[in-house]
Write a structure and sequence with these properties.
Layout (H helix, E strand, L loop, with lengths): L7 E3 L4 E4 L7 H7 L5 E4 L2 H4 L7 H7 L5 E3 L8 H14 L3 E6 L1 H13 L27 E5 L11 E6 L4 E6 L7 E4 L9 H20 L5 H23 L4 H17 L6 H13 L3 H20 L3 H7 L7 H14 L15 H10 L12 H13 L5
Parallel strand pairs: 2-9, 3-4, 3-5, 5-6, 6-9
Antiparallel strand pairs: 1-2, 7-8
Helix pairs in contact: 4-5, 6-7, 6-8, 6-10, 7-8, 9-10, 9-13, 10-12, 10-14, 13-14
Length: 390
């Protein structure tokens, strides 16, 4: 595999190695982190891919006893974590390799957290000081190998896990959940279908957009978010049209990591809506974010309009008005074949149950404009029926 000119080694926010062919460094990375018995956490769709076939044999040839756990589904639930934890303990795992998209990343980080810490994963929900219940030194070291460019979970300190009893997504947090090392190989994303390329790319864009618009002083996050949006604007359509465009795929991997780095500043109503809708319906998180983005933009307009000019500049738009960015967002979503509404996924009968879940979502705390239950209900109705009027 030819070496890409887009190669970098850096340690912000964690040790991150990007470039074509870096999957071949997995065994050496295990040695670097003193991992001898990893649990490789992935989803079933990865197992049959050509590039995955040599991964475990190569690890074994280097004396690294590897067990594969692939019992992960989209929107991973507590039950998946429990099954993976049992596999880790049975194997005597001393580390985790996380291979896949956000689902595998989040599940693997939670398995690493619980392997040597007490309780269940919901004991570490991101509320108050729950994270202090875990001994960070007992979290297994992890290596993240992303195969999508969306969530950026490979550089994140949190995971999103579904509570199957309430169908609500819970955010699990610990500062040491952040993987110790990332191998970001764009060639592993070549097989991603156009629809998933679109959804994951719009997920990364929502991360950058909401982080930039979140209130508070964080110029570093703002700068990262703006550059992330620029990279997505210039490369998402290219990767959608040609899945083997290595340069575009590399930039999108980088943008996904940048979005997750930037949103330490905060997220907002897009994610507060997407989490419960995804938990209740199974709708892909990136698709949900793409649907909600313009409706939330209109809702937040009074609080974010002063920031729009910088976003328009990053997107290289001819105008810098709110309408210019909104029209660009709608056009991109349409070009990518993503839906404009929740029609067929959410109906009005679900709104009374969804509104309290949105209000309780931690992402809402950093929305630029405070939201009442009535306002959330209004945004949901518009998202179902397609109304973008103020």
């Amino acid at each position: 595999m030819a070496q890409s000119v887009l190669v970098g080694n850096f340690n912000y926010p964690t040790t991150y190695r990007i470039g074509s062919g870096r999957i071949t460094e997995l065994a050496a990375s295990c040695v670097e982190l003193a991992i001898e018995r990893p649990l490789l956490v992935t989803d079933p769709g990865i197992l049959g891919l050509d590039w995955f076939a040599p991964v475990v044999p190569d690890l074994e040839s280097h004396g690294i006893a590897t067990r594969v756990f692939s019992g992960i589904e989209a929107n991973p639930a507590t039950t998946h974590i429990e099954a993976g934890l049992a596999a880790a303990k049975e194997h005597g795992a001393d580390g985790c390799i996380l291979v896949g998209g956000g689902s595998a990343m989040d599940a693997g980080k939670c398995i690493a957290l619980l392997a040597r810490n007490p309780g269940g994963i919901l004991d570490y929900e991101d509320e108050g000081d729950n994270w202090k219940r875990a001994d960070g030194d007992q979290i297994l070291p992890t290596i993240a190998v992303p195969t999508t460019a969306g969530t950026g979970s490979e550089v994140g300190r949190a995971a999103v896990i579904l509570d199957p009893e309430t169908h609500n997504k819970k955010i699990i947090f610990h500062p040491r959940l952040q993987p110790n090392l990332v191998l970001a190989d764009p060639a592993l994303t070549f097989g991603l279908p156009p629809g998933l390329t679109a959804a994951t790319g719009m997920d990364a864009f929502a991360h950058c957009f909401e982080a930039y618009c979140a209130p508070g002083y964080h110029p570093m996050a703002d700068g990262i978010a703006l550059e992330g949006m620029r990279l997505i604007a210039r490369n998402l359509s290219k990767a959608f049209a040609d899945g083997h465009d290595e340069v575009a795929r590399t930039h999108l991997l980088m943008a996904a990591a940048m979005g997750a780095t930037a949103f330490q500043k905060g997220l907002g109503l897009i994610h507060a809506l997407s989490h419960p809708v995804g938990g209740m319906t199974g709708l892909h998180h990136g698709t949900a974010n793409a649907i909600f983005q313009p409706y939330v933009m209109v809702h937040n307009r009074p609080a974010i309009e002063s920031r729009i000019a910088r976003i328009a500049q990053a997107l290289d738009l001819p105008g810098d008005r709110f309408e210019d960015v909104l029209d660009w967002t709608l056009a991109l979503r349409s070009d990518l074949g993503l839906p404009h509404t929740l029609e067929g996924v959410v109906d009005e009968s679900m709104i009374p149950r969804l509104v309290p879940m949105v209000l309780a979502d931690p992402s809402l705390a950093t929305n630029p404009k405070p939201c009442t239950a009535e306002e959330i209900e209004r945004v949901l109705r518009k998202s179902i029926h397609g109304g973008l009027e103020p």
